[in-house]
Fold this protein.
Amino acid sequence: MWGSVEGGGTKWVCAVGTGPDDIRAETTIPTTTPDETLGAVIDFFGEHGPVDAVGVATFGPVELRPGHVDYGRITTTPKPDWSGADVVGPIHRALGVPIGFETDVNGAAMGEMRWGAGVGLESIIYLTVGTGVGGGAISHGTLVGGLSHPEMGHVSVPRHPTDRFPGACPFHGDCLEGMAAGPTLEARWGMPAPDLPASKAAKAIEIEAHYVAHGLRNFVYTLAPELIILGGGVSKMPGLVESVGEKLVEILADYAPSELSESGFVVRPGLGARSGIAGGFALAQSVQ
Amino acid sequence: MWGSVEGGGTKWVCAVGTGPDDIRAETTIPTTTPDETLGAVIDFFGEHGPVDAVGVATFGPVELRPGHVDYGRITTTPKPDWSGADVVGPIHRALGVPIGFETDVNGAAMGEMRWGAGVGLESIIYLTVGTGVGGGAISHGTLVGGLSHPEMGHVSVPRHPTDRFPGACPFHGDCLEGMAAGPTLEARWGMPAPDLPASKAAKAIEIEAHYVAHGLRNFVYTLAPELIILGGGVSKMPGLVESVGEKLVEILADYAPSELSESGFVVRPGLGARSGIAGGFALAQSVQ
C-alpha cells in the first residue's frame, strides 16, 4: 500500500492505495503554512496507513539532488511561507518510510506513463498550461533533469504576428509561460477564457495554439519524445489540443519523423485530473 | 579491444583501442559512396582487429529504434548516395560482433562524459556549431531521445536586434542552425570567420553568441543539464565560448540554479577534436 501526495499552491491532495483505480482513502488539504499543511498530510497517513512508501510531487522549484543539503525542500518560491520549506523531512520523520520526491509535472508524467496516455511508451512529455506553464519529461524511461528539474515554461517563443501583449513572466517577459499561461490569456482578452464570446474565442484559440505549439517545437527538437500530453486548465479550451497539434506539424515543416504528423501525437491526459495523484503512487513504488 | 567509427559528411575516422588515450591503430577514409566507404571501414577492422564490439557514431538523421525496419540506417539525408544507407548491417555481417549505433553528437556526448569534460557528471549537453548545429544530451546517465534523436539545431531563437540576415535553414529559415552555423556566419559577413578584420570580429562574436546562448537557454530550461560542452569549428572563434556563457547567464535572468551563473558552465570539449572517436569506444563498450 502506497501513499500519494500532490502538493499545489492552493491545495494538497493525499491518497492511500495502489494506483488511480484503487484508492482506499483520499483527502484535500488547503495550502496554508508548511507546518499546518504538512501536519495535516502526516495526520492523514497516520489515520489511513500504514503505507510502505510515499510519493510526493509538489509545486516548485524544488531541490531534487539526493546529496544536496536542501534535498526535499521547495527552494525559492514567491509563495509566502513556503520558500525553503522542508517537505520530505517532516513526512519522513513522522512516517519512517521511504519518500519519493519530484516536481508536480514530473509526477504527472510518471502517472501518465504508468496508467495513462503514455502506457507502453518510453519517452513522453507532460506539459501543463494553467496558472503557469510547466513540463516534465521522461526519456527512455528516465525522468529528465540534472542540476535541477526542467522549467519548460520559460523557453523562448516567437511572437504571434497580431499579438501585442507584452508578456507576463516576471523574469523573461514574453517566454512561453509569459505568453500562454491563464493569467496572460485573461489579461490579453480582458476576461477569463470561458467567458469569451464566439467572435473572440476562435482568435484566442489561434493565438494560444501558436505559443503552445512553438514551445512544443523546442521540446520536440530537444527531446524527440514519442508523445506529448497537454494538461492544465487552459488546455481544456475547446479545440485547443487539436489546434496545437496541427500548428506543431505546420511549424516543424516536415523536418521531423513522419509519425509526428499523425493525429494523436499531442493528446489530453489519459487520467484527466488524476495524473498527479497517480504519479505519487508510481513515485512511491519507485522508492519502496 | 574495441572499434570506434566516427562517420562524417567528408570523412570517416576509424580506430582500434580501449579509449582516446589508448589507440592502437587509426585511419581516415574519405566519404564517397556507402559501399566504398563502409567497405574500407570493414577492411580496416579486418586488418587491425579482432575487436569485441564496434561503436559507430555518424551524421544523420539516423534510425536508432532497435526494433524498427530501418534500424542502423541513415534516413533522409540530402547527401548524394547516402539517403537510406545501411550502416550497421554491412559492418555487423562482416565482423560478427555487436555494433553500437548513435548520431555523431550523441557519440561525442558519450565520449566527453566518459573521458572528457563531463567526467563525474550525470547530465550534460554536447552542442556542435560548425557546418550545421547539432546536439546530444545525456540525462541521469541516459542518452535523451525517443521517436528519434534530438535535432537541437532546429529550435527557435529570437533575432539579434541589429541582424538582418534572413536565415539559411531550408526547413525553418531562422532557427538556431539557420542563424548560427558556419555557412550563415560566412554569408552574413561575406567572408569566413577567421578572415574577419578586428573591426568586424567583435560584432560577429556578439551576434553569434546571441544566437547560441538563446539556443542554450531553451536546452537549459528543457533538460536542466549540469554542464554544456560547445564543440565544432565555429566554437573556436576566439572568445566565443566565454561570450556565450556570459550571454546565457544574462538571458536566464536569474531564473535558474545559481551554479549556472558560475564560469565553467559552458566549456570547450575536454577531448578537443577527439570527443567523437572517444564516443565510439564508449558506445562499443556499452553494447559488448
Observations:
- Chain B has eight helices and ten strands.
- Strands of chain B lie at 2-7, 11-19, 22-30, 53-58, 99-103, 124-129, 133-139, 142-143, 227-231, 266-267.
- The mean pLDDT of chain B is 96.
